Amino acid sequence: MSSSSENSLSPVSPASEAGTVAVALAALLLGAVAMGVSPVFVRYAEVGPFTSAFYRVTLSLPLLALWAHLEAGGQAPARWDRATLLAGLFFAGDLVFWHLAIVNTTMANATFLATMAPVWVLLGSGLFIGEKVTRPMIAGLGLCLLGAGALVGSSVQMEPERLTGDIYGIITSIFFGAYFLAVRVARRKSRAGLILYRSTLVTAAALLVVALIMEDTFLPATWIGAAALVALAVISHTGGQGLLAYALGHLSAAFSSLVIFLEAVAAAFFGWLIFAETLSPLQIAGGGAILAGIWVARPRHRTTAPAVAADPATRP
To answer: Which keywords, in A-to-Z order, does the entry hold (predicted)?
Structure first.
């Protein structure tokens, strides 16, 4: 598809725009749940964390290639762009440092520090991609941070011997925040499936190198481990990241980044449901604060420019 056809926009009615935003919000919520369940699959993967991250992206490539082909409608795909390349590299960095944080500090510390990503997204939205950050978004972020603190804060322990792991957690949040910004910029020119397919190729190549250097077990021992890796690829990456990429075509990066907090809520819920991990009243209140923060920050009327590249479902 030529860039001129991609950049063409047709007028949309308020009702049509509201419907598109509602679909994007639903995609964002479902994507958060799909990404939030990923720790469950990692626990059953029977391979090291870097290898499971490699399988997560690599096994998703056939589905993503099919998605990109179907959404193109027989037209030539757009050229590679820098934002898509950076998205792939940023996501690889996110996964690598996330697993390094898990290994070198407590799970609570790693989770809490990783949820700082929206802070970087809000800062970067105005500085790097030219999107306005509204007061409701800032207020919503504040509520979400309070909620995240309540959700995992009781388990957070700042100790000198875990400082390296804590630093890895902060680096994770920077990479994930940069990933949001890169995908948002890429969605101005290309469709979700193509962006995710191409960025995943980059991520897979980077993670292959890391896995070969860092680990020596590359195959799961049982069918349960293999099934967990497939589920990680299909549900958490193709489903979760795919829905996120779609939503970023219609919602601002700043608001969409709050999905990270929903991942923490979803992870806590699945930990309770599957592994019988207890949830204290404070943690439940923290989850409620996160939901309230997202409600406060929700889009009102038109808060961002519409996506430049139309998705098949919204193409005139």
So the answer is: Membrane, Transmembrane, Transmembrane helix
Angle between helices 163-186 and 117-128 (to 10 degrees): 40
User: How much is the pLDDT for 301?
Assistant: 55
Could you tell me how far CA 69 lies from the centroid of its own chain? Answer: 22
Q: Which two tokens stand for residue 52?
A: 């499971």
Per-domain boundaries in the chain:
13-297
The pLDDT value given to residue 194 = 95
Q: Which is nearest to 6 in space by CA: 190, 252, 183?
A: 190
Q: Give the count of alpha carbons within 13 A of 86, CB side only.
A: 16
Mean pLDDT estimate for the chain: 83
What does the pLDDT look like over 238-258, one tens digit per residue? 999 999 999 999 988 998 888
214 or 4, which is more confident? 214
pTM of the model: 0.82
